[in-house]
Design goal:
The strands form four sheets. The protein has a seven-stranded mixed β-sheet with strand order 3-4-2-1-5-6-7, with helices on both faces. The protein is built from 20 helices and 23 strands. Helix 6 packs across helix 11, helix 6 crosses helix 16 and helix 11 runs parallel beside helix 12. The chain is α/β, with parallel strands linked by helices and 625 residues long. Helix 14 links the parallel strand 16 and strand 17.
Length: 625
């Protein structure tokens, strides 16, 4: 695997590939004299951190240029840009995959075109911020690979091109952390799935969640070896695991108050303020009372009494000269009421016009709002997080200091309340109802701003769930430990974008089938989507027969693939089973007798060794694997 980049994501990605997947990695980074200080990576994995500490130290001691030096099953190539010569020195011609994660889109595109020419069978992963351009580049590079390899455009995972954005890949984890308090999530078919540790009850037979992924160490510690976790256990092992914790798969959901509809007609109650509505109600009551009094005094028909009252109200009737005194008094009262009604009607018209005018503008947090997420920052990361939270129907109040921020248009389209102001100023977080919020999600581009907002929010709500986006891993670790020590009963998470985005980039380098990875103590579970055709371990077997304990397990059936192949289904009832989908194109809890056909596409959980066997690869041996 070859990784090229100029910031912390490249180092984190290289550590992920080496520590989680056990791959041999070549890291291409700028020379040390450019002053880039990569953050410490793989802190949770001491061996990986030590490996890249040695790599960085070796890089500093070497002369600048494209010279490569192997270090502990990895090597560093120092170069300011991934030119053809640099890619050749990194061994792209022999590599299985190349990740281009420079901060500049043009640099990544230029290097990708060069790499595709050097090795048409290379799997490419690009970091691009422009989504539309990324789609075109992905199609172009895949077409070039198909023509060069002569496979007629059928492609395949070995020559695939995947375009990712660190903002898109980090947003689901940030959203899940704010809602569920965990970043161990996998995104598939629009669903957010999380791995949750549970202690089963004695004698419990029902499988909790969507699936049981692992049994934790018997002593509850990360002991590794024979006493370590048991991945993908069978039902008998789960029943026998009395007192042992389990890792189960669940869907991330939110049970709090829901957002109002993002689109549609404006509600009548939102046209006028509460005070104005009470004023209008009072005026209507006065008119009705005057009409009833006129009916009783003069004896005219009730409709005529109401009509005469309105005429008097708007001063378009003749004076009641020669009429009884009661009629004259009521006319005077009606005229006075009409004078009072004019400013109320004018205020109602102005307020209604203002409401219609501001439906396309930014909304203010409604009164009484609670249980929401306060999102600080509507930049590149904040916009993606806002979209993800809105998809989960989670109420959000945004805080942004820049009136021209890119995410304001998204907030306006989704009708999400926004508070414009500097979060470091007094009163801004109060306007966002921080004292009644469910969580604070600080994702601005300034680490100090995020930290200051978190500390102030904690002073207002000591038990508030806080999630901070911090660039530097060292700083994120220090902040996390300090906040946890100061507020042990509150949920605190500090995350760097490179830390959250690296697993998605690493999974893409392993192939398009990989959906994500979830660590379980010292081991890791991979989630993959693949066609059943061509895999004898799956095709023609039932779900129960396709399950291999400790290797892989079929979790769901992709109905999107099946809908296009319905005519190939042999049994109508098999298709009807697929229609029982809960909110997505995936069917969970498949019956054990369901036969997997070649036209099916499934989502499965697997160990590294199990997935390698399914894909026909030979897994690399690694200590602690």
């Amino acid at each position: 695997m070859v990784v090229c980049g100029d910031d912390g994501l490249a180092h984190r990605l290289a550590a992920e590939l080496r520590g989680v997947y056990g791959e041999q990695v070549t890291l291409v980074v700028p020379p040390a004299d450019r002053g880039m200080r990569p953050p410490v990576v793989g802190r949770a994995r001491a061996t990986t951190a030590a490996l890249f500490d040695r790599m960085v130290n070796a890089a500093v001691s070497r002369a600048n240029g494209a010279a490569a030096e192997p270090v502990a099953n990895a090597q560093i190539v120092e170069a300011t840009e991934a030119t053809e010569e640099v890619l050749g020195a990194a061994g792209v011609e022999r590599a299985a995959a190349l990740a281009l994660v420079y901060d500049d889109d043009e640099t990544n595109i230029r290097a990708a075109l060069t790499a595709r020419r050097l090795n048409p069978r290379l799997r490419l992963v690009l970091r691009l911020y422009n989504r539309r351009l990324g789609q075109h580049i992905e199609e172009l590079l895949d077409q070039a690979a198909a023509l060069a390899t002569g496979d007629g455009g059928s492609g395949g995972s070995d020559t695939s091109t995947t375009v990712l954005s660190d903002a898109d890949t980090a947003a689901p984890a940030l959203a899940a952390t704010a809602v569920a308090g965990t970043s161990k999530v996998v995104q598939t078919d629009g669903l957010l799935l999380r791995a949750v540790e549970r202690t089963p009850l004695v004698g419990q037979l029902a499988r909790p969640g969507l699936a049981t992924l692992a049994l934790l160490s018997a002593d509850g510690a990360d002991s590794g070896g024979e006493q370590g976790p048991e991945l993908l256990p069978d039902a008998a092992a789960v029943r026998a695991a009395t007192g042992r914790g389990t890792v189960v798969l669940e869907q991330v959901s939110y049970a709090g108050p829901q957002l109002p509809p993002a689109r549609g007609a404006v509600a009548f109650s939102s046209l006028f303020s509460r005070r104005l509505r009470w004023s209008l109600a009072g005026m209507v009551g006065c008119v009705v009372a005057l009409a009833v009094a006129l009916w009783l005094v003069t004896g005219v028909h009730p409709l005529s009494a109401f009509y005469l009252t309105l005429l008097d109200l708007f001063a378009i009737d003749n004076p009641a000269i020669g009429e009884p005194v009661g009629r004259q008094i009521l006319q005077l009262l009606s005229g006075l009421t009409g004078l009072l009604l004019l400013p109320v009607l004018l205020a109602a018209v102005l307020e209604a016009l203002g409401t219609f005018r501001t439906t396309s503008a930014l909304r203010k947090p409604p009164r009484g709002l609670g249980g929401h997420v306060v999102l600080l920052g509507l930049g590149k990361i904040g916009t993606r997080v806002l979209t993800r939270l809105r998809e989960l129907n989670i109420p959000v109040v945004c805080v942004e200091s820049d009136p021209d921020a890119r995410g304001l248009a998204t907030a306006r389209r989704l009708r999400v309340p926004v508070v414009l102001g500097d979060v470091t100023q007094e009163g801004v977080l109060e306007a966002a109802k921080i004292h009644r919020a469910h969580a604070l999600l600080a994702v601005t581009s300034a680490d100090t701003t995020n930290l200051e907002a978190a500390l102030y929010a904690r002073s207002v709500r000591p038990d508030l769930r806080v999630v901070l986006r911090l660039y530097d891993d060292d700083f994120a670790t220090a902040v996390y430990r300090t906040l946890r020590a100061a507020h042990p009963r509150a949920s605190t998470r500090s995350r760097s974008v490179s830390h959250l985005a690296a697993p998605a980039f690493a999974g893409a380098m392993m192939g398009r089938q990989i959906l994500g990875a979830i660590p379980v103590e010292r081991r890791v579970l991979l989630f993959a989507a693949m066609d059943v055709a061509g895999h004898p371990q799956l095709e023609g077997k039932t779900v129960a027969e396709a399950f291999r304990a400790g290797a892989w397990r079929v979790l769901a059936l992709d109905t999107g693939a099946l809908d296009g192949r319905r005519e190939e289904a042999d049994a109508e009832e098999a298709y009807e089973d697929v229609r029982a989908v809960s909110g997505s194109g995936l069917v969970w809890d498949l019956p054990d007798g369901r036969v997997l056909k070649g036209s099916d596409r499934v989502v499965l959980a697997a160990t590294r060794r199990g997935l390698a066997e399914l894909l026909g690869r030979r897994p690399r041996e690694r200590a602690g694997a």
